[in-house]
Write a structure and sequence with these properties.
single chain, about 325 residues, alpha+beta, Jelly Rolls, Arc Repressor Mutant, subunit A, four-stranded antiparallel sheet, 12 helices, 10 strands
């Protein structure tokens, strides 16, 4: 991260502009302090912990050289939480562009195909946390899969309070023990999943869905082993593909093609838990064209291969 000069006049203006919007629990921690960074250094006591903060910082980005590539940050896995206080950053995640404006945070894991940078002539004031551990990576991957890599926060968000508090503690006093540090990191991960992870109530409930959409979803779940596609769901609903896709997207919040893939992956998870089928057998029963494509889709969704999921105790 890049440390920039402390500009009291600009910070005062930023504080006035954003204080009412985002509340004083974030701004009071950062608006009156100079930029800083600190690495978490704690003794290793006993077993490896699966959630741990490793660094924190507060940056006022003005340097046009601020540009990070997710595949050029080493091989050790870690996660990033970076919240924008003022200005705006840019992110490219798996080829898709995003803005990271005030009130939002990007959540990323590494190594991964992402890049984030400060646009030419722009400004980007933010605080950040770096964390590692298997539970952290799992939580970040899951939240990204469900909600994307850029998340917007309300001013009372428990996630934002926890992240800002952890950043302040690391910069000001540090942690008294690895156990305390790990507990804070795990708490942040669970709050992230609670708000942005999978939800059974996401989208409309079965009772609220229009009957044609219900029929399409029932058809999908009954024919996952077959090579069905959006046209088949549209036919089950009795609509044209265009009209069906528009209605499905509006009602469920995702496209029907994405829905089919997610249903296949959910079925695959159940089979990986409860059956002794091989990975190839699971792929066939869930309608994937090949075991290779299945493994790629499974890893993208859950962060591990199907074999690692089954042997690694992830359920």
């Amino acid at each position: 991260m890049v440390n920039m000069c402390y500009n009291k006049r600009r910070v005062t203006a930023i504080q006035r502009k954003y204080f009412a919007v985002y509340g004083n629990f974030v701004l009071s921690a950062f608006s009156r302090r100079p930029p800083a960074e600190r690495i978490v250094s704690l003794p290793r006591l006993g077993p490896s912990l699966h959630a741990m903060p490793t660094a924190a910082g507060f940056t006022r980005g003005r340097d046009p050289r601020y540009d990070w590539h997710g595949l050029k940050r080493g091989r050790d896995p870690f996660a990033l939480f970076q919240y924008t206080l003022a200005g705006c950053g840019r992110l490219e995640f798996e080829g898709q562009p995003y803005d990271v404006p005030p009130g939002s945070a990007m959540i990323l894991y590494f190594p991964h195909d992402n890049r984030y940078w400060l646009p030419k002539g722009g400004a980007w004031d933010f605080f950040y946390l770096c964390l590692n551990g298997s539970e952290i990576i799992k939580a970040w991957r899951t939240a990204i899969h469900e909600s994307g890599p850029v998340l917007a926060f309300r001013k009372s968000s428990p996630i934002l309070r926890t992240a800002a508090g952890m950043c302040r503690q690391i910069l000001d006093t540090g942690f008294r023990s690895p156990w305390h540090a790990s507990a804070q990191a795990y708490d942040l991960a669970m709050k992230l999943l609670e708000e942005f992870g999978p939800k059974q109530t996401r989208g409309k409930s079965p009772h609220d869905r229009p009957e044609p959409i219900k029929k399409a979803i029932e058809f999908c779940r009954a024919h996952l082993a077959s090579p069905i596609g959006v046209d088949d769901l549209a036919a089950a609903a009795g609509y044209s593909r265009y009209h069906f896709t528009r209605l499905f997207q509006a009602g469920e919040g995702i496209g029907p093609g994405v829905f089919i893939c997610r249903q296949r992956l959910l079925r695959a998870v159940e089979l990986m838990k409860l059956s002794g089928d091989s990975v190839k057998g699971v792929a066939q029963k869930c309608g994937f064209k090949s075991s290779g494509y299945f493994c790629k889709a499974f890893r993208k969704a859950y962060g591990v291969s199907p074999g690692e999921f089954r042997t690694g105790g992830m359920y």
